[in-house]
Specification:
Two copies of one chain form a homodimer.
Chain A lengths: L3 H9 L15 E5 L2 E11 L10 H18 L2 E11 L4 H15 L3 E7 L6 E10 L15 E4 L5 H11 L6 H4 L5 H7 L5 E5 L3 H12 L1 E5 L13 H6 L5 E6 L10 E8 L5 E3 L2 E3 L13
Parallel strand pairs in A: 3-4, 8-11
Antiparallel strand pairs in A: 1-2, 2-5, 3-5, 6-9, 6-10, 7-9, 8-10, 11-12
Helix pairs in contact in A: 2-3, 2-6
Amino acid sequence: MSGEAAFIGALRALATHPAARGLVDDAAVIEIGGEALVLTHDMMVEGVHFLPGQDPEDVAWKLVARNLSDLAAKGAQPIGVLLGFMLGEDDRRFVEGLGQVLGEYGVPLLGGDTSSGGPPRAHGLTAVGRASHKPVPSRAGARPGDTLWLTGAPGAAMLGFEALRDGSGADSAAYRRPRPRLAEGQALAPLASAMMDVSDGLLLDAWRLAGASEISLAIDSRAVPIAAPESRRLDALRWGDDYELLFTLPPGTEPPVSATHIGMVEPRGFAQLFLDGEPLVNSEGLGWQHGGP
Amino acid sequence: MSGEAAFIGALRALATHPAARGLVDDAAVIEIGGEALVLTHDMMVEGVHFLPGQDPEDVAWKLVARNLSDLAAKGAQPIGVLLGFMLGEDDRRFVEGLGQVLGEYGVPLLGGDTSSGGPPRAHGLTAVGRASHKPVPSRAGARPGDTLWLTGAPGAAMLGFEALRDGSGADSAAYRRPRPRLAEGQALAPLASAMMDVSDGLLLDAWRLAGASEISLAIDSRAVPIAAPESRRLDALRWGDDYELLFTLPPGTEPPVSATHIGMVEPRGFAQLFLDGEPLVNSEGLGWQHGGP
């Protein structure tokens, strides 16, 4: 067995509890004491999710923001985070960045673990939140006739990454310090038929939403606002790290937040994703595959 | 800044929520919907917490068992776990070991993340549980006059580690497959004035309990049952990985589980730990310090 897909397939047999949502959602949802608790865990590995030598303040920010974005996709209010941290050279700056992002979103550090080891260093973060609305949105609720929407404009993180990589001096904040759409997620939770965050690229994540909902999504690429030159449009649709929200609404419902209508939900057809009418028959090349080569 | 102690000191400023218990407890405790939820996160890093080449089945078992032991120390019933996993060569065996330990304790996998990267590989696990009794035991409740108790006999994991390291063929299960004291923790939670699990060595963990409770502990070393030859008694008291429960009981209370009376709680004196009447004035050499030299 090799690769993430095979491994996750094997794990799925252990994830039989309904709270696990078959491991096809952004987060687990536990019902406890009449409340719905939302739990997510994301890792960041040196050389995979961040550049060796990247400012630890930014690594801390992104580690927290990635996880809060998963809570946003569930419409959850953050309760706190647990940190798994590998000690290194410039840990004071990591703590400073951690304090900045936790302060920005009013989220306390609840606990965790530290270890020596590496390079590469690997950090993990678990975020815990309280659902603001039940049922908690999932990726699986989109129905034919629903409309497909996206907050923000993909491409900014791509340009930010390239600026950082190339040392061009252009603004890289969108890549280094993404802003999870917590307020938008909470406003959308009572309305959205399906919702997820776009962490691995719009097309790949749309593919996943379509798979979970067992429908087809038809995206009009020209409707998507992008934060990159027009010549980079297709790149922007495939690049991750923007942490926008992708969601569907029942017919006739308008979103209560700033968002763009980018497509439609259709009955499951020949392909689960259509881009400008062209069927995309597999997910290769649509975005960032974690386990990847 | 270097080392775990300095880093945790800096983190403590971010852990202001009461649920974090000042980062001096085994787990965080969140009150939600009238229930108390217990959360813990522990990492295992190749070359630090497990031997390169060690059977991934055993790594998976221990990763889960370490975290369930933290739940045991809170008297919590496990609800589920989230896994942060770095993909490698023999992941099928990891999944098999994960299935064994989750099956043994009836705990579902709820979610998590996978990544490429390494070696060294670093895995993290978050365990979530529901407190069986409130208030939830902490390390901070021991009072002068209480009695000090220990489940089981330390030293078995030490001998198991040495057998595995040396390839002697002797039994190494205590090191490879520790058994969290979940039932004992739940039986003790209504009675114990303070409780923790012994993950880093009896003396070091007793030092920590004394620090959190602001008392002194007096341990009678000969009263401690050890699972090692008498000549290794002091080693056994310093070795971690046994995952027994260390707890205090109010005067006159007998434990409802199998355990040994190994000492007394005294008012904070000259040192926070006394071993056979000798004061131990700092924690150097008392056990396993994660961040290492």
